[in-house]
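Section: protein folds

Sequence with per-residue C-alpha cells
===
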Amino acid sequence: MLKFIKHHLDTIAGVGIYPVISFLLFFGFFLVMLVWLRKVGRPHIEHMAALPLNTDQLSHAPIDHAH
C-alpha cells in the first residue's frame, strides 16, 4: 500500500517542502508553549491544577492568578 502512496507523492511537484513545513510548525508551536510555560507564574499553574479538585467550592469571585 505504501508504494501506491509513494508513487502518487512522487508525481507532485515540490512535495519535499511539506515535511519541512510540518516540522517547522510543530517545533514553532512547541517553542511558543515552552516560552509561555516559563513566563506564566506559579500561582496560575497551581490554580489551574486545582480546578478539577475544587468542586465543593462554588465561589465566583475573581482570583488574581495572572501575575
Q: What stands out?
A: Helices lie at 2-10, 17-39, 42-50. The mean pLDDT is 81. The chain is about 60% helix and 0% strand.
